[in-house]
Specification:
heterodimer, A: alpha+beta, 6-stranded mixed sheet, 5-stranded mixed sheet, B: alpha/beta, 18 helices, 11 strands, globular
Chain lengths: 457, 512
């Protein structure tokens, strides 16, 4: 093969700033950002970076499946996200697509229980046009019944493609078992019966828009080759007319759990057994210690470097996947450990091992050295992920949905610095109690149809 | 040492180091294939606090010996997820834990390429590199790691692919079907039956014969110190020299006519993949023209494309519809493709995401109708210009991270083209509508189509295909006349296939 001269290096030399390590320890989020509030309540966060040419625009709306309070209306935040692509007063979907296509943009959106995020990455010269386009759908969304009904089928298609995975079902049942009143009981996709009824709920979709697509719930995040003044000028120009709303969702409080809960799923096709062991945990906080303490415990107790993982996955080899999940949520969230067990006969053993590990950390104090290594891991893990303007915007968006400022990231990591092994033990014993627990087990209906046997035929 | 082109950006590096770095160097990226002892490399030094590694071996699943399908993949897994001679995998995971990593190395095995990816903050570079070097150059080949990783590979095929993800199942099986009898025929992870028979000695043999200097390309980007490349050269110079395996992979022999295989599985919906071989890769002069066509027809996970607008937006058939001219695994989990999946042979592919089973026959017809329309009419001037503009900007997004730029540069080296962004910009600027429509006529008109369907009622769908009766679709809302008129054509559109070429396959036999 011929030697080729590739000319990336000159470009690369102008690339990202080196951040001194000691500065990182004080301030985990190293970029100089600004926060500007418009009189209507809309917030703009601008994060200039040294990555050239591109701009990442993330518009974060503080609504998600958590806000779906009426019965029969699960899945609307997500469905509504789809409708935001179906036309506005000044742009048909075709015109919108054409503009984004000319901008070479990657454009998409996602919804979780607490947030809906609309994101685009594109060349900086197209910033004005993209901001104008985005403002139109946030201020002047417009779609008809027919388009609404058709789009509901795309949502059903999304549910159907997800349904092939046993994990989707496991997660759905876990939420429904652990939460009885709070809207975290349903997934972001929603209940299948509600999805099937979506075509009939046009008026509710307009109501959803009226309630939550308001400046006081929305933050515009601009990251990349952009400066504050330009970002602010464009935001004022296109978003100033947006009217503040008056709706505040009344999210039911989940009552205290008073008994251990379990659920069993009979899966129709061959698979390996899946387990979810969950305890009711705290909500996100950048000032109270309990969430931070359990964040630090998660990798120590259940991560790839944990004693449990090394035993079940690497040495005994009874499990082929084991991981903790404990998201940052507005309301109290589950601390869950998921496992996929290789042989159905080991399910009881594995479940017990997971339970014993939860129990162990309610009495045992972890090593200071392990705790320090975990803090280091969280810091470097976060820093390693910040490798483009888009990555920075994507990393910041969840925190914007929680506190509307990147500063919460620095506060959170400062909180991590203060956590002691005793804090972790005390928090674990507070939350990992039997009455806080939900266990879900998914297995193929008849044990003899297990995946390990099926292929021998 | 091969002669590299020393660019101005590296002069500073060279002045500071006592000896010339022995890795071949170019203006941030180069390769050295000048002599048998050289190690090829792609280097992208800069001042970032992050260092990315892509350690590539020009071998992969197409090099699996017959009956030992899966050994290339299992060998890579043993290096990336197994212990070294000195340390267990547990110890390696523990060592990278404070560095922010869950695993010391990422790995990817494709037909002709195996790549190990690593990342380190410059603070940890020495310690991290020490581990990586040990893993790749002094592997432990421990029995317990072998048992675990072989189980993982088998369960990946039997459970994760066959039983959890109908879309990837169909997409991967399409490749098996098109490449039947070809070295590309089996899944990159192997076959269930061959994996069950593999031994640790198979893995050792594969490592010895394929992990050679001749097969190695070192990719390095970020704020690494000047002398670092020399250190890597010395370390990786300990690999056996080997012979460069410039094995030629011919186009697959695909019988004329359409063949449809229906994978029968207990599932809620019906997924489709269509494809046929194309002779065009990134090395080919017509690749940019086909890239424009594929983007226009079905840009990955984008609403800016024809199929998506016709099938999802206008009709609500499913969640999305896309088209490809390069292998793009795991597309349901990511928006941009992973680099280092270069191949000598590629296919044109349409991916129709799952539809409601009652619309299966209509969807099959719609897919063929749209494909035929493209092959017949090509692109309009307006569509061509918009798509060309999109792609010339979009390459900046594909390469926005340091790691992606490194990966793309390595792929450019493989295909013998210039830096990807420059290549796209310059080639697209020269391209005309006539070039594109000529490329459609030349490469996308196939009489050797292969279609894979995943559905529950396989027999019902097979009967519907063979009977050829109308398959009208009903909607939950009024549709424009233009769509209704088109539906009239689609509902009776001829599926030109012989009865013996519509085959039902129980899912348990896929990847077996």
């Amino acid at each position: 093969m011929k030697t080729k001269l590739l000319s990336l290096s000159l470009l690369l030399l102008c690339l990202p700033l080196s951040v001194p390590a000691q500065q990182q320890e004080r301030r985990l989020f190293p970029y100089n950002y600004t926060v500007d509030d418009l009189p209507n309540g809309l917030r703009l966060v601008t994060i200039p970076t040294d990555y050239p040419n591109l701009v990442a625009l993330y518009i974060v709306v503080q609504t998600g499946s958590r806000n779906e309070v009426e019965p029969g209306k699960s899945g609307y935040a997500h469905f509504f996200e789809h409708m935001m692509f179906r036309g506005s007063e000044n742009y048909t979907p075709t015109q919108r697509d054409a503009i984004l296509k000319r901008a070479g943009a990657e454009a998409n959106a996602y919804t979780t229980s607490d947030r809906t995020v609309y994101h685009e990455v594109f060349s900086k010269e197209d910033l004005d046009e993209v901001m104008k386009l985005e403002a139109d759908r946030f201020l002047r969304l417009k779609y008809g019944q027919d388009v609404f009904k058709t789009e509901s089928l795309a949502v059903l298609g999304e549910y159907n493609k997800n349904s092939a995975s046993p994990f989707s079902k496991l997660y759905e049942v876990l939420r429904g078992t652990a939460y009885k009143k709070h809207t975290y009981a349903h997934t972001t996709m929603g209940f299948i019966e509600d999805i099937k009824d979506m075509p009939n709920q046009y008026d509710y979709s307009l109501e959803f828009y009226r309630r939550f697509y308001r400046p006081e719930y929305t933050t515009v995040v601009l990251v990349g080759d952009v400066n504050r003044q330009r970002a602010l000028d464009l935001t004022k120009q296109y978003f100033s007319e947006w009217k503040r709303g008056d709706y505040v969702a009344s999210i039911p409080t989940e009552p205290r759990q008073t008994e251990a809960r379990t659920a069993q799923i009979d899966w129709a096709s061959p698979t390996l057994p899946h387990l979810a062991v969950a305890f009711r945990g705290p909500a996100y906080s950048d000032d109270k210690k309990d969430k931070a303490a359990l964040d630090l415990l998660a990798p120590i107790a259940f991560g790839p470097n944990s004693e449990l993982y090394q035993r079940l996955v690497l040495r005994e080899q009874k499990v082929d996947a084991l991981y903790p999940s404990f998201g940052n949520q507005i309301d109290p969230e589950l601390f869950t450990v998921y496992a996929r067990v290789k042989d159905p006969k080991d399910v009881d053993y594995v479940r017990q091992q997971i339970l014993d590990t939860f129990k162990r950390f309610t009495t045992e104090t972890i090593d200071q050295a392990k705790l320090d290594a975990t803090r280091s891991r969280l810091r470097y893990g976060f820093a390693l992920g910040m490798n483009s303007s888009e990555a920075i915007a994507a990393a910041v968006a969840p925190y914007i949905a929680l506190r509307r400022t990147p500063d919460t990231i620095n506060k959170l990591f400062n909180l991590y610095e203060q956590i002691t092994p005793q804090d972790i033990r005390a928090t674990a014993s507070q939350y990992f109690t039997e009455n806080n627990r939900t266990i879900v087990t998914l297995m193929t209906k008849a044990g003899d149809k297990g995946a390990n046997k099926e292929a021998k035929n | 040492m091969s002669k590299g082109i020393i660019s101005t950006v590296l002069i500073f590096t060279l002045l500071l180091s006592a000896a010339l770095p022995a890795l071949a160097q170019g203006g941030g990226a180069a390769n050295g294939a000048g002599s048998a002892n050289s190690i090829a490399s792609v280097l992208q030094p800069n001042s970032a606090p992050l260092v990315n590694f892509r350690i590539q071996f020009m071998t992969g699943s197409a090099f699996d010996p017959p009956g030992k399908e899966g050994v290339a993949s299992l060998t890579a897994a043993m290096l990336a997820q197994g212990g070294t001679r000195a340390q267990t995998y547990e110890q390696l995971v523990t060592a990278v834990y404070p560095m922010g990593l869950s695993a010391p190395l990422g790995w990817q095995v494709d037909k002709e390429m195996t790549v190990f990816t690593g990342a380190s903050h410059v603070d940890n570079l020495d310690r991290y590199y020490g581990l990586m070097r040990e893993m790749l150059l002094d592997p432990g080949f421990r029995t317990e790691d072998f048992n675990r990783l072989r189980d993982d590979a088998i369960n990946f095929l039997k459970v994760s692919l066959r039983q959890s993800n109908d879309e990837e199942l169909g997409k991967e099986y399409l490749y098996n079907l098109i490449y039947a009898g070809h070295p590309y025929a089996h899944h990159n992870m192997g076959r269930v039956s061959s994996l069950e028979k593999l031994t640790i000695d198979d893995v050792r043999d594969f490592y010895r014969s394929h992990y050679t200097r001749a097969n190695l390309v070192i990719g390095l980007a970020g704020g690494y110190p000047a002398a670092f490349t020399k250190r890597m050269e010395t370390d990786f110079g300990k690999l056996p020299s080997g012979k460069a395996e410039r094995r030629r992979f011919e186009a697959p022999k695909v019988d004329a006519g359409t063949r449809i295989e229906i994978i029968q599985r207990d599932t809620l919906s019906t997924a489709f993949s269509l494809g046929f071989p194309i002779e065009v890769t990134r090395a080919h002069k017509d690749w940019p023209a086909l890239a424009v066509v594929a983007s226009y027809l079905g840009q990955h996970r984008s609403s800016n494309s024809y199929l998506y607008q016709r099938l999802r937006e206008a009709r609500g058939l499913n969640y999305g519809d896309y088209a490809y001219i390069e292998y793009f695994p795991r597309g349901m989990f990511q928006f941009t493709p992973d680099p280092n999946l270069g191949r000598q042979q590629q296919i044109f592919q349409i991916w129709i995401r799952p539809v409601e089973p009652q619309n299966g026959m209509f969807t099959l017809r719609a897919m063929l109708y749209e494909y035929d329309r493209l092959a017949r009419e090509g692109m309009s001037k307006e569509a061509f210009e918009a798509t060309r503009e999109f792609l010339s900007k979009y390459s900046n997004i594909l390469t926005q991270t340091q790691d992606a730029r490194l990966g793309y540069a390595m792929d450019s080296r493989y295909y013998g083209i210039q830096d990807f962004n420059t290549y796209m910009r310059e080639q697209l600027a020269k391209l005309t509508l006539e070039d594109v429509n000529r490329a459609v006529q030349r490469y996308l008109k196939s009489d050797r189509m292969r279609i894979v369907v995943v559905t529950k009622d396989a027999e019902g769908l097979r009967n519907a295909i063979l009977k050829g009766e109308r398959s009208p679709i009903t909607y939950n809302s009024p549709k424009p006349k233009e769509i209704m008129d088109e539906d009239k054509v689609i509902e009776s559109y001829r599926v030109n296939v012989k009865p013996e070429s519509v085959v039902i396959l129980p899912v348990a036999r896929v990847f077996e």
